[in-house]
Amino acid sequence: MNLLTRLALKGPLITLLAMLIVMIGGAFTLTRLQVELFPDVDFPLITLTTVHPDVDAEGVLEQITIPLEESLSGIAGVETIRSVSSDGISIIMAEFEFGSDMNVAAKDVSQNLQQVSLPDGVQLPRAARLSLTEIPIFQLSVLRLAGSDEIGNVLQLVTAEILPELQDVTGVFSADVPMSTRAGMTITRTNGRSSVPVTIVKEPDANTISVVNGITQKIDGLVSRLPSDVDIITVVNQAPSIQASIDSLKRESLLGAFIAIAIIFAFLRSVRPTIVTSISIPVSILGALIVMGWQGMTLNMMTLGGLAIAIGRVVDDSIVVLENVYRHIQEGGDKVRATLEATSEVAGAITTSTLTTIAVFLPLAFMGGIIGTFFVPFALTVTYALLVSLVVALTIVPVLASVFIRQGDILGKNETWLQRTYTRVIHWALSHKLATLGVALALFVGSFGLLRFIPQSFLPNVGDDFLTAQITLPLGTSLDTVLEEVIEVESVLGQLRTDGVVETFQITMGRSIFPGQGGAGPRGSNAANLSIRLADGEKIVDIAELLRQVLAGNKRTIVVNQAQGGPGNSNMLELVLTGSNYEEVTYTAEKIVVALQDIEGLERVGNAASPITGGYAQINRVNGMRSVTITGSITGSNTQRINRVVSNKIEQIGLPTGVQLETGGLFADISEAFAQMAKAMLFGIILIYLVMVVRMRSLRTPFVIILSLPLASIGALGALFITQRTLGLPALIGMLMLIGLVVTNAIVLVSFVEQLRSRGLNFYEALIQGGQSRLRPILMTAFTTSFALLPLAIIVTDGGIISAELATVAIGGLMTSTFLTLVVIPVVYSLLRRSPSPKRTIARE
Asked: By C-alpha distance, which of 130, 116, 129, 120 is closest to 65?
């Protein structure tokens, strides 16, 4: 590292030219990156859907489902095979081990299907894979404004005139009418009239916003050529929400950067040192963008969130370097030599702290599961920014400091007051070690007592203008009766649309080919699903509650939820019961359903245990055994509390011998997230310790630094408790990131204490002087990082995973850990080194 600084100082013009090239190259790359909502995740799931008209569920099971299940069972990597057999339809979902090559898996499935013999007239199903790139980016409905609902003619018009035009748009992979509509199994109504839905999927490497712009231009041209009584209504358009979310993160990132610069200026109170330090922010971020472009990454919520999080951290190394350079320049002598010596003095500490911060993200890449896959782009983005910031701190900052920093640039009055106060505190702490550690331990243990008062969930709701709902009528209700109820609901929604509250609404009735299509759970002929897009500026929570009240009826029940998004995000309760004795399984399922009916925050609990559900037969199987799935909609915010209540109810009922229960849905998401993040944190701590052992060539000193980590939980949990924000996946990612941030301060402090001791200072002199000298850079880095995250914590936006919860945890943890680190770590350090009592040393001095 000394060589890197030496070369930069020898060729300052080349160094500054390289900085300029990085900034221009990063800005150019930013304009070339593809834009999407989330990174592409290939889910380990293959679905086979087979239609066999005029055959009942038992016939579908025997003739189609079982042969297809047997063809899948021998394929490598298959973990679970689930199937739903109902009148005329077989649906099979093969779940593979996460990390399986799904291209190979799909090929194996297709090959095995060729060996299956199906009844005459039944075509072999296509192996359909689930990927975020296959989720429609645009959905529209075509309807006639006047006259009779000639839906057959509209379908013909869509097929002949509209679909070819949309498929011709650059970047469109497919534009099609859903299979269930084509087969006449579902009825779709948009804004109160019968309609034909069209879904559009983009090519994997296409820019969502560019594709949508092309689609809207094409639709504008179609409207002018189609009959005047035909209307095309946009139901779903991902582009505005993507653009709004990205613009919001950009604004918060820029605001965070300006706040960080203001904090630096508040500490340094001089323009030139502030500029020298702050240059690391744009250079690091733009440098990271160059690497992202080289790696073929996209600009999405995860990568942009990584950049937003990194803004506060990338300046830390530069702060430490600049502050030390200034101290050396004040001592006089040659500025270039003083700069080199000052940078060399802290190079080891900032390198270690940067590597430890990076190391904490490494387990995410090996975590497995959808969470690990989803967060790899986030971790890589932060890593790239931090590595560039380290290079900037060791090259560009020393060059600029040697040119622009002068004696007297940084005022010291505020620093003297801080040092004087800190000196009194650290003297007291070293003289009262047990009391100091006792207070820290009490705060640490007490923070975990707050867990019971903190809401827990998986992910925050995503989609600030979209609601989904399901209308359910008694079993056996005819489709005509459902239509009457739907028309009544439409009249209410139509009035809300006239009032400017609702922009568009779509209702789908009839049998759904896929379980959960269009709403919360499998839909039979006794149910209808709603998609409601609100007008801009409407409060989602208030409108959802209003709809629950005004849409409910004597015959119908309705469940309204905010649209969900993100990796595996769902608001569903899912309990799967399997066993060899199906009668026992169904009896147990019915008892559980009754027990769960009155749980607050859990609605529409039901099961598919009866042979006839929603007017049609449905046979569920898991790995070849008959099963019953209990479903419900979770409307409460504290899902972990609901989980505990559900578990207690099931425990009271008890499961008969031979009956197994598998938890799915939101509860399974939470359990998996907490378990995986616990592993990631443990591995991250181990990696951090190993990195410090290698860098410091010591076992005990890194252990002292590791002991600063528990101090972060005090502020992290305290901040969630005060704000009543949710402890979920975003907060857990914040805690993982906090591990890397917290050790940075301890490394800077302990490393300098070790240097002072190597120069001959006695133990307590080194602790006192080291704390005094490193007080300002430690406070500067902590406050800069925290205040840079403040916009993300305060401005609650539709950011999904990179949300206010993540920033809240990071800020709270940094605040408490920073102040406690400055006091507690010296005490721990003194105990592990077994040095003489501070009272005797202080008295002797």
From this structure: 116
